[in-house]
Amino acid sequence: MSIQLHDYQEVAGPGVIGELRVLAGRVAGRRMQHINSTPVGGGVAEILTRLVPLLRELGLEASWDVIKGDQAFFGVTKTFHNALHGKPEEITDQMFEIYRANTEANLQDINFTGDVIFVHDPQPAGLILRKKEIARNWVWRCHIDVSAPQPDVWHFLRPYVEQYDAAIFSMPDFAQRLPIVQFRVAPSIDPLSDKNKPLERSYVAGVLEKYGIDPGRPILTQVSRFDRFKDPLGVIAAHRLVKKRYKCQLVLAGGGAPDDPEGEEVLRDVQEAAADDPDIHVLLLAPFSDLEIDALVRASTVVLQKSVREGFGLTVSEALWKKKPVIGGAVGGIKLQVIDGMTGFLVHSPEGAANRIAQLLGDRRLRERLGENGYLHVRQNFLLTRHVKDYLLTMLALEHPRESVVYLA
Ligand code: UDP
């Protein structure tokens, strides 16, 4: 049975739903088109999967298209992604050529139907070239930190970005100086999705059994694509340190994403690093393993997201929503979600992570307090309903630029 708007009333509050209906009434029947680079894997796909149906329910004609790309293109965009996050990468003219050629192919392929078109992240950013023919509102929705990019990639991307009518960043720290309107919209989780909904204990127990995880000992979990920025090797190092004091287990659960060709190599490194330790469970999950991910997080004593660079890190809110204390790398959007000492702990090294894990394993009350705070923090700030509201406001702001409404930034 499909989830409907009123189902959110219980988790988000009736006022929130009423507000959404009022805002949606002002843009009823309008077409909001989203375009990104993968239908599955990673936070953007995760969000759009639920956001688009909810917008439809509110009376908008929301749609979602995915650009096509071969391995060469996604190899290039992953390199760009790393470089935009400030990791040194060797960039060649051929890479720019591959990006341009792929953009050209997608310009022919995609049917641009939106009254407002949200283009997510750098991979499809070049689609703005169509704006000359289709004069609609174009928004570049950037989920990553482009505040300190490698200059050559940003110089390449920037002329595309400047043609948009507006840009959205997840947090002010991520933004660039641009000659276009900028909004701040944080990502969100869907509290009613399979990944976040309450589960029967027996189901959770079954998942632990399936993966050979002992329910009688503490479980540390990180759910992430196998990506170096997520620092799975740092998590293994932290676990090694903690194991000297606590007989805990580590679960590293993740899958790939079609637009991330580095995953296999990172997975191999992780498997190698974990090979001699029966208490480390490296789980390669199929796409749409949402119920199992939900179960693994619910069974966890502590959840980690020890990224060394991060966009937002939806996994953090997913865990906080389940009242789990989270230890997160002090980077990107993790800093919005993990309020140090309140909803979890921010760390800068495997040693720091190990100290905080040990502290949490030794203090049930602390875990409960942080978990409770985390749940409230997510309820207030990072639920899908807030995200929908922000996009509706963005649409209104673009359609009525002169109206004196207090907007998001
Ligand atoms: N995820 C998943 N399966 C996996 C790994 C991750 O469904 O094997 C989900 C995870 O639960 C979260 C999203 O993918 O909802 C990842 O979003 P996040 O913002 O944490 O990181 P990104 O992958 O976008 O960098």
Question: What's the arrangement of secondary structure elements?
Answer:
Elements: H1 9-12, H2 14-25, E1 31-36, H3 43-57, E2 61-66, H4 71-84, H5 93-109, E3 116-120, E4 137-142, H6 151-161, E5 166-169, E6 181-184, H7 201-210, E7 219-223, H8 232-243, E8 249-254, H9 263-274, E9 280-284, H10 290-298, E10 302-305, H11 314-321, E11 326-329, H12 334-337, E12 344-347, H13 350-361, H14 364-381, H15 384-399
Parallel strand pairs: 1-2, 1-3, 3-4, 4-5, 5-6, 7-8, 7-10, 8-9, 10-11, 11-12
Uridine-5'-diphosphate (UDP) is lined by residues 42-43, 46, 195, 223-225, 254-255, 285, 293, 311-315, 318.
Give an overview of the whole structure.
- By secondary structure, this protein is of the alpha/beta class.
- It is built from 15 helices and twelve strands.
- Helix 4 crosses helix 5 (93-109) and helix 8 (232-243) crosses helix 13 (350-361).
- The longest helix is centred in the C-terminal third of the chain and has 18 residues, at 364-381.
- It is globular, with a radius of gyration of 21 Å.
